[in-house]
Amino acid sequence: MAPLVSHARGLAEEALRPRDPQRLHEHLSSAQQIDTLSAIQRAFSAPADTRRPWRTQLETLGLDPARIACDRLHLRFQPHWAPDSVCRRHASTATVALHRDTWGCNLYAQTNCWAPVYPDSAGRTVALYPALWSRPLKNSSATFDMPALLERSAAGGRTAVDADQAIPHLQEAVDPAEARPVQVPPATPVAFSGAHAHAGVGDDTGLTRISFETRTVWRDDLLAGGSAPNVDGHAPWAAPGLFRMLDDRMPLNEVPGCARTVRRDDWALAATVGLQAR
Questions:
Q1: Tens-digit pLDDT profile for residues 163-205
Q2: Section 78-95 average pLDDT
Q3: Which domains does the chain have, with CATH numbers?
């Protein structure tokens, strides 16, 4: 992960020079943060300069690029905010609320990868909730409309969808003591299932949290029906089109020949039949 994290640091430090990226909140207003950080995120996500070290990282782990699909590579900024402050819930800077990724995407073979770009701490990181792995949680996934969200984002750009609209929501109280903040050195990858409940930790540490994240789907898991259990997901749509095969960049949905978003039951059949033919 070191080359990828070095690349991320270089982009952030060049864009924010001469200021320390971890102290950007001391120099940029909320609106300036949104504009500046959105531009850095776009510069990180798209180019081959980012994808190349990520592919190398996966190959080093023995993963075949022809058998794995990846979501976009995302550089997340979570600026320091005082506990009583109010800020716009923009996707580029918001603290992500507790959720399971599977509430929205319906891909239970998904694995998430997260790593800090600069040193993290218990108050400046992501938190996992292992005790909730098999505990159903009341949530809004049943009414989550992934096709509509993607259409709105395509028409208006990422600013058309804020952080609260981008994911289904928890609809019950969870004891904060159940959170397990992740603390690892920079460039240390942490992998966990997309079905794991997780959330951003509200950052009032005086430094901005900068981290890398992406999601992957292993083709063989889809073929074998291998996946995490669905304990509380009710979203009507699956979103395979969020992922692309690592070797040839083909959208995952085109492998079995279905739409970018597809009814959940239809995706289960399409994945099994279509991916076997690849």
A1: 677 889 999 999 999 999 999 999 999 999 999 999 999 889 9
A2: 72
A3: 2-277 (2.60.120)
- In angstroms, how far is CA 124 from the centroid of its own chain? 17
CB 44 within 8 A of CB 50: yes
3-state helix, strand, coil in the chain (%, to 5): 40, 20, 45
Torsion of CA 96, 210, 196, 90, to 10 degrees: 20
| SS3 state of residue 122 | coil
Q: Is the dihedral of CA 223, 224, 225, 226 positive or negative?
A: negative
User: What is the SS3 assignment for 23?
Assistant: helix
Select from 135, 124, 127 the least CA-distant residue to 23: 124
The CB density around residue 85, as the number of other CB atoms within 10 Å, is 9
pLDDT band, very low/low/confident/very high, at 31 (cuts 50, 70, 90): confident
Per-residue model confidence (pLDDT) at position 109 = 94
Three-state DSSP string of 149-204: HHHHHHHHCHHHCCCCCCCCCECCCCCHHHCEECCCCCCCCEEEECCCCEEECCCC
pTM for the whole structure: 0.91
pLDDT number for residue 141:
97
Residue 158: C-alpha distances to residues 41, 161, 166 (Å): 11, 6, 10
Q: How far apart are CA 14 and CA 275, in angstroms?
A: 42
Tokens describing residue 203: 């950052």
The DSSP output letter for 108 is T
